[in-house]
Amino acid sequence: MITLEVLAGARRGTALAFDGAAVTVGRSQGCQLQLPDEGVASEQVQIFREEDQYIVRDLQSGQPTRVRRGNAEIALDERNRFELPLRDGDSLCFGEPTSAVVVACRFAESESTVPAARIQAERAFTDFARVSDDVTRDSDAARKL
C-alpha cells in the first residue's frame, strides 16, 4: 500500500492511501489523486507496483516532474525513460521549482515483515531411502516426521 500526502499546493494536507494496481495523479477528474494546481498536467504521472517496488512514470505531459530523494532531485525525463523506482520517503515535485506541488510517498509495512513460514527440520536427500524404510515399518515414525 502506498500513501500519497500533499505537502505543498492547493490540496495541502490531503493524504490518500492506495492499494490498487495503479494510481494516476493530475488535474483531471479521472485521476485517483486530483491536484487542481496550474503546474500540474491533466494526467501528470502514474504510480504502479511492479513485483516488490513502486514505480513512478511521467506521462510526458510537458509539465516537469521531479523526484526529491533526500537532498537530491531527479528529473523524470528521457535519461531515465521517464520512470523511476520510488523509495519510501521520496517526494514527487510537479511544476516549476519556485511554485512546485509536492506529494510525499510513504509505503505501508512490506509483506516481508510478516513472519515467513519456517523450516522445522531438514534432511539430506541421501536420507530419503532410510526414512522411507522407517515410515514403512513404523507408522509412529511417520508421525514424527
Give the number of DSSP strands: 11
Major sheet: arrangement of strands: 2-1-11-10-7-8
Helix content: 10-25%
Order of helices and strands: EEEEEEEEEEEHH
Please report the number of helical segments. Answer: 2
Ends distance:
39 Å
Can you tell me the CATH class of the largest domain?
Mainly Beta
Which strand-content bin applies to the residues? Answer: 35-45%
What are the segments in which pLDDT stays under 50 over at least 5 consecutive residues? 111-120
Largest sheet: 6 strands, antiparallel
- Global structural class: mainly beta
Mean pLDDT: 84
Within the CATH hierarchy, at the fold level, what is the topology of the largest domain?
Tumour Suppressor Smad4
**Per the principal axes of the C-alpha atoms, what is the gross shape?**
elongated
Number of domains: 2
Please identify the oligomeric state.
Answer: single chain
Architecture of the largest domain, CATH level 2? Sandwich
Rg from alpha-carbon coordinates: 24 Å
What does this structure look like?
The strands form 2 sheets. A 6-stranded antiparallel sheet has the order 2-1-11-10-7-8, with no helix packed on it. It has a 5-stranded mixed sheet with strand order 4-3-5-6-9, with no helix packed on it. The protein folds into 2 domains: 2-112, Tumour Suppressor Smad4 (Sandwich), CATH 2.60.200.20; 115-144, no CATH class. With 145 residues, the chain is mainly β. The chain is built from 2 helices and 11 strands.
